Amino acid sequence: MSKSLEPKQARFVEEYMLDLNATKAALRAGYSARTANKIGSQLLGKTRIREAIAQSMEARSKRTQHSADAVIRELSYIGYANMMDYMTITPTGEAFVDFSKLTREQAAAIQEITIDEAAGGAGDGRREKVQRTRFKLADKRGALELLGKHEKLFTDRLETLSEVQVKLREMSDSDLEKAIQQKMTELGYAVIKK
């Protein structure tokens, strides 16, 4: 952790790492409940704090041997799983579960397997035992939503506003003034220079 942080800021970084929620982290770090939302956002806008969070995330990733790539890969196995990868279709159109060529990646998408055995058939065609295999794949939609969020396919208005606020805080007064004047000119407003 960066030594240039104040104790309360360092605590904020530790708390932020728990759930990546700036408001809750600010509260747990000892900031006022009345201003926790504002303070949390301001703290995330500070370069030193962002660097400390990045260092903490990298350290945690090394420690746990988890990486963003590994998480995305696992979500992809679930999100792109297809029932046809787990079945064989006979020439007569009957489908049956076939795990004989199951890969590790395909197995990662299976949430549940149930095997029922019972006596089956009737008359001369009666068999001793019939086995019925059922399986359920993990939540495909949930995995695809998480992948979509990662790829910024779905952005919440609040997330976008937060990103804009951070960028605005990083701009110098003169850069901010130039950006405002440029936008006003683009929109057709007269810009009065002092």
Describe the protein.
The chain has three domains: 1-66, Arc Repressor Mutant, subunit A (Orthogonal Bundle); 76-142, no CATH class; 155-194. The longest helix is centred in the first third of the chain and has 18 residues, at 47-64. The model has no long low-confidence stretch (mean pLDDT 85). The strands form two sheets. It has a two-stranded antiparallel ribbon. Helix 1 (7-19) packs across helix 2 and helix 1 crosses helix 4. With 194 residues, it is α+β, with helices and mostly antiparallel strands. The protein has nine helices and four strands, in the order αααααββαββααα. The chain is 53% helix and 14% strand. The relative contact order is 0.08.
Layout of secondary structure:
Layout: H1 7-19, H2 22-28, H3 36-45, H4 47-64, H5 68-79, E1 87-89, E2 95-97, H6 104-107, E3 110-120, E4 127-137, H7 140-150, H8 157-170, H9 173-186
Antiparallel strand pairs: 1-2, 3-4
Strand order of the largest sheet: 1-2
Number of strands: 4
Instruction: Please give the largest β-sheet.
Output: 2 strands, antiparallel
Number of domains: 3
Mean pLDDT: 85
Shape: elongated
Q: Given the structure, what is the number of helices?
A: 9
Structural class: alpha+beta
Order of helices and strands: HHHHHEEHEEHHH
Give the uncertain stretches in residue-range form. Answer: none
Classify the oligomer: single chain
Amount of helix: 40-55%
Q: CA-to-CA gap between the ends?
A: 45 Å
Strand content: 5-15%
Integer-rounded radius of gyration: 27 Å
